[in-house]
Amino acid sequence: MPVVQVRESFAGPWHEVFDWVANFERYPEFVPDLTKVVILERGEDWTISRWEAKIGGTPLGWTERDVWVREKEGGRIVFEQLEGDLKRFSGHWKVASEGLGSMAEFRCEFEIGLPGLAIMLHPVAGLKLRQSMAGLLRNLKIRVEAAEDGTSIRFLDSPL
Fold first, then answer.
1. pLDDT of 55-64, one tens digit each?
2. CB–CB of 93/66 below 8 Å?
3. Sign of CA dihedral 42, 144, 156, 78
4. Coenzyme Q-binding protein COQ10 START domain location, by residue (predicted)?
5. How many CB atoms lie under 10 A from the CB of residue 101?
6. CB within 10 Å: which end of the chain, N or C, has fewer?
7. Assigned domain for 110 exists
8. Contact status, residue 38 vs residue 57, Cβ threshold 8 Å
9. 143: in domain
10. Which helix (H) or strand (E) holds 83?
11. 156 in any annotated domain
12. What does pTM read for this prediction?
C-alpha cells in the first residue's frame, strides 16, 4: 500500500500551525485540485468531513472521520476514510514544537482498489498527493510566518 509523507518547518509556534492545519474547510484555497471540504458533524475533539477533488479532471470524493489529540508540545489529527472512491485512505497530521519554531507532518496510506491498474495508478496518485500536500504546507508556512512578522501574505501556486 502506498505511503505519502511530507514535512515542513515553521517559524511560528506549534499551536498556530495546528489551528491552520485543523481548518480543513480552507484547504481548497491552497490546493487547486481540492474543490470542496464540508464539515458534516463536529464534536469536541472530532469531525466527520466530506472532501471533493478533481484529479486530472476525474472527480474523487470521500467522507472521513478526523480525531484531534492535543498534547503539551504538539498535536495530531488522525483521519480515516469512512466511505468514498478509494478502497482505503487513512493517516495523520502531526504538529509539534521544533527548536525555536515548529514542524508539521502529513502522512497517509491509500489504496485505489483497482488491482489490475494499481501498479500504474498508485505511483501517479502518490506523486500528485505528495505535491498537493507539500504545496499546502508551503502556503500554510507563508500564512503562519506572515502573521508572526506582520508582513502581507502571498500564496504560492500549487505545483499541480
1. 878 899 999 9
2. no
3. negative
4. 13-131
5. 17
6. N
7. yes
8. no
9. yes
10. strand 74-84
11. no
12. 0.87
Residues 110-159 pLDDT 10s: 988 777 777 777 888 889 899 999 999 999 999 888 876 654 444 444 33
Residue closest to 149 by CA, chosen among 141, 138, 137: 141
CATH number reported for the structural domain that contains residue 91 in this entry: 3.30.530.20
20: its cell numbers:
491552520
Q: Is the dihedral of CA 153, 12, 16, 147 positive or negative?
A: negative
Count of domains for the chain: 1
- Is residue 73 within 8 A of residue 52, CB to CB? The reply is no
Reported as a single tens digit per residue, the pLDDT across 51-92 is 999 887 889 999 999 999 998 889 999 999 999 999 999 999
> What does R_g of the chain's alpha carbons equal in angstroms?
16
| CA–CA dist 47, 64 (Å, integer) | 8
Residues 33, 70: Cα–Cα separation, whole Å: 29
- Note whether residue 155 is domain-resident: no
